[in-house]
Write a structure and sequence with these properties.
The chain has 120 residues and is mainly α. The chain has one domain. It is globular, with a radius of gyration of 14 Å. The two termini are 15 Å apart. The mean pLDDT is 92.
């Protein structure tokens, strides 16, 4: 149940990014849900490697480079999604950066509200 809730939280955050960030386009709710699955798998498999490789830069920037890693992960998930036929597009790095920032904020807030309620 927790995994399904996390996918739905990611989908809501991706929908917010597609709705409010110019340069991020989603085909509909099905595309957003499918990309949330791709995004979750990409974050589980690729993101740890990216963070390991970029660890010196992350330390040097006091963690701010993590925002760049998040933007790259959003671009990667959108690229993989397009290859799988998912209608979700990110036009460039700046929209990916702003979208990743919004996805992080929305998913954190929703996780605090929804997941902490279910555990307590």
């Amino acid at each position: 149940m927790k995994t399904v809730l996390r996918v739905l939280i990611n989908a809501a955050a991706l929908w917010a990014a597609a709705s409010f960030v110019p340069g991020i386009h989603a085909g509909g709710i099905g595309s957003v849900l499918a990309l949330a699955l791709v995004f979750g798998v990409a974050n589980a498999l690729v993101r740890p490697f990216l963070k390991l490789v970029s660890c010196p830069i992350i330390l040097l920037t006091l963690g701010l480079f993590t925002l760049v890693v998040n933007a790259l992960m959003l671009m990667f998930a959108a690229w993989v999604g397009r290859g799988l036929g998912i209608d979700f597009k990110v036009d460039g790095f700046v929209p990916a950066f702003l979208g990743a920032l919004l996805v992080s904020i929305v998913s954190t807030l929703l996780s605090w509200v929804l997941i902490s309620r279910n555990e307590g």
